[in-house]
Amino acid sequence: MRSNTKIWIEGTIIAALSIMLSFLPTGMGTTFSISLGQITLTVYALRRGVKPAMLAGLIWGFLHFPLGQVIYLSVAQVLIEYILAYPFAGFAGFFAARLHKSIQAENHGQARFAIISACLVGTFARYFWHFVAGYIFWGQYAMWGLSPVIYSLVINGTNALLTALAAIVILLIFEKVFPTVFIPKDQKSMSMH
User: Fold this and answer.
1) Count of other CB atoms within 10 angstroms of residue 96
2) Tens of pLDDT along 2-40?
3) Residue 192 lies in a domain
4) Which NCBIfam families does this one have (predicted)?
């Protein structure tokens, strides 16, 4: 099988795993949750780079539709939160080359830095769009007497922070126990470094 085809198949499997993980209950009340799918997408981004990870994120976003996981207020809101936001999780892939070099050089400090950076960048890039949608579309439902912008910042900022922390913890464990998960056997990536 051609290497590029393997990369796209791997990305599709990652998207499917990401949506499956969304069915695990991680909610804290009605507003806060951890997006476990971010973990698998970040691993893929660190394996393959930005471009494949953004495509996998797009597929992850699209998979919400047939599974009835879309909360719909308007077409624009759905486009922002599912078609635009999820691909941005692939920005974690900007740290793929740094991580690969660090692992191969057995430089664990640099590897951990790349993982932490990737988790933060990928998660916050995605949640930026959830914040935008929250401000524009969900602001009318703001609780606790907060303005729409503050409410969206609190909700989406907290969810992003919880998601990033979960991804950091899991991926740092992977780096320590199973670092080769980040390095594909074919060593090919289609990143935009």
Assistant:
1) 26
2) 778 999 999 999 999 999 998 888 877 667 889 999 999
3) no
4) ECF_ThiT_YuaJ (TIGR02357)
